[in-house]
Amino acid sequence: MINSGDTAFMLVSTMLVMFMTPGLGLFYGGLVRSKNVLSIILQSFISLGIVSIIWVFYGYSLAFGPDIHGFIGNFDWAFLKGVGLTPGTYSDSIPHLLFCAFQLMFAIITPALITGAYAERMKFSAFIIFTVLWTTFVYLPVCHWVWGGGWLGKLGALDFAGGTVIHINSGAAALVVAFMIGKRKGWGKDAIMPHNLTMTLLGAGILWFGWFGFNAGSSLSAGGLATMALVTTQLSAGAAAVSWIAAEWIYHGKPTTLGAASGALAGLVAITPAAGFVGPVSAIFIGLVAGIICCFAMSLKNKFGYDDALDVVAVHGIGGIWGALATGLFASKLINPAGFDGLFYGNPKQLLIQAIGVIAAIAYSTIVTIVIVKLIDYIVGLRISEEEEMQGLDVSLHNEVGYTM
Amino acid sequence: MKKIEAIIKPFKLDDVKEALNEIGIHGMTVTEVKGYGRQKGHKEIYRGAEYVVDFIPKIKIEIVVEAAMAENVVETIIKAANTGKLGDGKIFVIPIEGAVRVRTGEKGKDAI
Questions:
Q1: For B72-106, how does the pLDDT look when each residue is reduced to its tens digit (9 = 90+)?
Q2: How many independent structural domains does chain B possess?
Q3: How far is the C-alpha of A98 from the C-alpha of A108, rounded, in Å?
Q4: Looking at the DSSP assignment, which residues form a beta bridge with residue B3?
Q5: Residue A287 and residue A239 in contact, taking contact as beta carbons nearer than 8 Å
Q6: Helical (H) or strand (E) element with A10
Q7: What ipTM was estimated for this complex?
Q8: What is the CATH number of the domain that holds B39?
Q9: If you measure CA to CA, which chain A residue comes closest to B52?
Q10: How far apart are the CA of B94 and the nearest CA of chain A, in angstroms?
Q11: Which of A23, A36, A187, A310 is the most exposed place for a label (fewest CB within 10 A)?
Q12: Is residue A144 a part of any domain in this protein?
């Protein structure tokens, strides 16, 4: 039976998650140099188109359609065949098509997150092919494993709103692409600085706002569980913003605006898998730890020499891993009877299952992303020419500029 | 005629302008410039990565006056722009061969 309250909430949640992708564009846009601002915003923006088409053609079916050996869905729901306005497999109270649309917004933002790793140097054609292939061969299978009736979900791995599917997955891919595409010209020598942090803060605000749809919406109903997910989301984001600026204040001497925004994002990432399984105090703890470890993870790229331009690995990869493991620590059936207890509630096995999920996602995403990137490099080439890079991608790839002043 | 080119701290512009007004200078050209001298640049930190920014914002004022006035103008700018700290700027005095007012075609000291 369609429930109009649930349906109304899920319609709004779908729109909120959609809004995150242009918000991500602004967040990233402010962090690059002004000559590349449009190129990175466009990558987020056009993902809204590219992934939507994939999703209808075969994406939704492979991710959520009838299961093949726990690995992937089949083509039964291709072109949304049978995905109609009555409730489907995943919810009794909203139209199946609405669940499909809600999940589409998750599929859109995931490859868009990776654009931060290869910002300021990827060919636009390479970006499009990467987004199509990565969505198809990495996102859809891993999404199926966790949510579509696949092996990880059956194993009992908890991922409320996509810590493994979205953040660990994209974080691992970001590391691979950053290594394979190489450093931006002048990295480590010249000052490659953010050009507009006010834009980044606006983007962070939009992401935080949209994340309520992401996490609370993942309860698929308008009730107590959605409320708890909304509250834990708010608390983790806020706590992580505070702990991040505290950490940098102590270690770098000054609290920064970018630190506050990055911290909030790290907190949002970390609470994503846990949002509907943990209580408010646990959420604050998850956020506090996320802000600190992600802040220190920023230095990994200098240590290992990869140019993850906008720190996708540190925020989404490391934050996602912490969130997935923290779910195995703090999950409680008192919060969500449909979940499991974590280590702190007497079930150490859950932590092990979460760790298996983390390792499986990292391993799969890493290997398949390597193959995809090799292939793209062979077909069209990954990287723009040195001259185009100096000129800036906005002019050299798109014949326009972000600012005329 | 002389041109006085003064590079000063941006926040001193109003003081300098008022001081020059008082000695009868009623026109100038101002440009926002960047540079460095003995005052080093500053440090910026983004996500823990440190950058040293060498070039710091300054204001360049250009004024053309009769040669006899030049000394007075320079003294006035020094007084108004001085903070006693590194980075107060520099003043250059340059000889000018000619000047023309575009509207009327007046030349020489009538033009300035």
A1: 999 999 999 999 999 999 999 999 999 999 999 99
A2: 1
A3: 15
A4: B64, B94
A5: yes
A6: helix A4-31
A7: 0.76
A8: 3.30.70.120
A9: A191
A10: 32
A11: A187
A12: yes
